[in-house]
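Researcher: I'm preparing a figure for a lab meeting and need a structural model of a single chain. I don't have an experimental structure, so a prediction will have to do for now. The sequence is pasted below. Please return the structure as tokens so I can convert it later.
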Amino acid sequence: NYTINHVLPGLNGAVGETKPEIKQATADTSLTVSDTNANPAYLAGFEPIANSETKKIEADGSTVFTINYRRRKFTVTYEVNYLNHFEGTPSVQNPETVEYEASATQPPQPTITKHGRTYLFKHWQLESSMNGVYSEQQAYDFSKPVLGNVSLIAYFKETIEKVNYKVVH
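Model: Understood. Here is the structure written out token by token.
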């Protein structure tokens, strides 16, 4: 037996964890372990840092290799005017880069101003839940870890202000 230690970093540079994986090879042979030996279970959120080690496999099982990983980074985009639903309003805010399993930062509430209408910001929601139609969906939970790229849409309740007027001839 030999061991490959998979070293996974913590969030924001914090100490992470080492996950040992026991493998078998013929004793007294030479073996090279590199990033191609990365464990597929970790590849969704981590990527191996290119390194390579060649060692003799000891019969007593004391041979240990190390593969270091870094967290993948994902993009969180914030869109205020989905599909130009509110004509004349800017569409996208600055995207945010977030490490795997970190939380996105809730941006300041966006505003929309249009004469004769009032827009009340309700929440940010996932674009994927809208199925291509601007409609109210469940609010996004900003405490939830990010596991991939995320597109968030600002949802507004629109009120048309009615006025009464009288025409005198």
